[in-house]
């Protein structure tokens, strides 16, 4: 994304580089979907593997192996509050290390209101020293441009800056993956605030892949994402017509139009595949091809 701040395109297009090195998210049970989408996803793409309550360690390890086997980079999640013990964390990391899938992880606090074991939050996991001991080199952490439904805003910034400092102190590379949203404005404001606080990790902006409106709203309600009528219109759907499907076209155009690397730092895109891996991957391919075609037309017109 390199368009100067404040300029707008006259046609609905954007710099195709916005989607260079995008990442995707899947659950442990989505391996068949990834196999189906394989030819639509660039080799080496980072694939995050969630840490859901209904999936056991074996399912998560198997999914990480499948991601690697299919030619992608597995990024297993570690949900701090879902870990029942230090032993459980060590066993999971040891399993990843044995499979050669421990290089990249994403550490998040997790959903339970009360921890199921000794780890209150992601920072507690980072401070164990176990990640580096088991071969982790890159650590992702979470960011919440629109806040978190279970954490007060006054606590979110210190938590994020502390995690970023821990990543730097342990000499990991890292990034921040944000919760998804429907409005680029709070994302851009949050990015600027993040950089002002001295956090310069690359940020992967969470974007929902194309999905049914009802499903999008259900996830938005669960994660505290704003869905006012004006935000819905801006994104491209109506709260009075929930039968259709919505994609992130407008969101990505708005993000690219106002992105300024000097103010917002390094930004990439992370897709939450609510509508399925194949659906999301095919949409990305079409979107990139359309943007590239319009860019070529503009260059021809200028020459």
Automatic annotation (TrEMBL):
Q: In which pathway does it act?
A: One-carbon metabolism; tetrahydrofolate interconversion
UniProtKB keywords: FAD, Flavoprotein, Oxidoreductase
Lyase found in the keyword field: no
Which cofactors does the annotated protein need, by name? FAD
**Protein origin, superkingdom:** Bacteria
Q: Does the keyword Oxidoreductase apply?
A: yes
Stated family = Belongs to the methylenetetrahydrofolate reductase family.
* Record protein name field: Methylenetetrahydrofolate reductase
Q: Which organism is it from?
A: Streptomyces canarius
Provide the gene name from the record: metF
